[in-house]
Amino acid sequence: MNSGKDINYAAEIIKQNQVVGIPTETVYGLAANAYEADAIIKIYELKQRPHFNPLIVHIPDISFLQQITMHQPEVLLKLAEQFWPGPLTIIFNKKEVIPSLVTAGKKTVAVRIPSHPITLNLLKLLQLPLAAPSANIYGSISPTSAKHVIKNFGNKIQYVLDGGNCEIGIESTIIMLNDDEKFCILRHGGISEEQIKKVTGYTPDTFINPEKSISPGLSKSHYAPSIPLFIGSINELLKKHHEEKIAVIGFGKKYGDIRIIYQADLSSVSNLNEAAKNLFSTLQQADNSGADVILASLVTDAGIGKAINDRLQRAAYK
Ligand code: TXA
Ligand code: MG
């Protein structure tokens, strides 16, 4: 597979209804023309993703919402204006032009404008909506570099736009309006509860592990490494686990134990943004370290820390 920064080449592939790997500020995506069911089906096949799990649609600018959504409630536009381009995904009622394959049969569509300049330029050049889930096999660790995408899909996709390491490193926050016209968070991510509160005036409800009918992709188990991962106090976990080879993922701390063959600190200065940026690549490395088990500590449960803890909890062994 090729990788590089050629957005004209990427645009040509998209126009042929093929799939391209794209960088975003959150994680890398597997993108195709959201208007073309023939192209979208390829995303589901590549990811081995169940068809009940809808995709996020990426658009070039706010006015593009009119082309794909029925109406644009003012409260939603206010959040879009504040946080787009950026890691916030908003649920709208969809227009017919978006095939039901994209939304897994739902009447709503999840939309965002990504802020990575390469992908933003691609969107502006194409003037098409791009459906793009994270570029990983369903249920596995999300990719934060072009290298991860190549490792996941090899020659099965023609091209990956290489935009370097993802700046944020964790997926977008997904929000929707409830029946009572209040916001609710379906997935914690790059925009924190606190940031949303500043715009809306209240802390939105969190709807983690919502009913499948509301957000089908938010299964309890996700982002899983191939070896078991346990979360908790590392010192306690070290006492409980008797494996010979252990990988440890800490937050602002180092641990001493002869069995530790891989040790990473998500942020030596306990900075949550840095921890988010390092999370998925650290999980990949721990997974490939030759250890029998990964022990990880949770981070401070505030700001983007909520998203980090959510991903660690879903990645943990059940
Ligand atoms: O940061 C991100 O959001 C990345 C980048 C590539 O933009 N994308 C991403 O996509 O994380 P994916 O497919 O891995 O996760 C999309 C999530 C799924 O959990 C899905 O269930 C939910 O969005 N979703 C999509 N459409 C929805 C809808 N209409 N209603 C509720 N949830 C929806
Ligand atoms: Mg994903």
Outline the fold blueprint.
Blueprint lengths: L1 E3 L2 H9 L4 E3 L6 E5 L3 H11 L8 E3 L6 H4 L5 H10 L4 E6 L14 E5 L4 H10 L3 E2 L14 H8 L5 E3 L11 E5 L5 E5 L5 H8 L4 E2 L22 E3 L2 H7 L5 E5 L9 E6 L6 H16 L5 E4 L8 H11 L3
Kindly describe this structure.
The protein is of the alpha/beta class. The chain is built from ten helices and 15 strands. It has helices at residues 7-15, 37-47, 65-68, 74-83, 117-126, 146-153, 193-200, 234-240, 272-287, 305-315, and strands at 2-4, 20-22, 29-33, 56-58, 88-93, 108-112, 130-131, 159-161, 173-177, 183-187, 205-206, 229-231, 246-250, 260-265, 293-296. An eleven-stranded mixed β-sheet has the order 1-8-2-3-7-4-6-5-9-10-11, sandwiched between helices. A four-stranded parallel β-sheet has the order 12-15-13-14, with helices on both faces. Helix 1 (7-15) packs across helix 5. The longest helix is centred in the last third of the chain and has 16 residues, at 272-287. The radius of gyration is 19 Å and the shape is globular. The chain starts with a strand and ends with a helix. The model has no long low-confidence stretch (mean pLDDT 94). The site of threonylcarbamoyladenylate has 28 residues, from strand 5 and strand 6.
Short description:
With 318 residues, the chain is an alpha/beta fold. It has helices spanning 7-15, 37-47, 65-68, 74-83, 117-126, 146-153, 193-200, 234-240, 272-287, 305-315, and strands at residues 2-4, 20-22, 29-33, 56-58, 88-93, 108-112, 130-131, 159-161, 173-177, 183-187, 205-206, 229-231, 246-250, 260-265, 293-296.
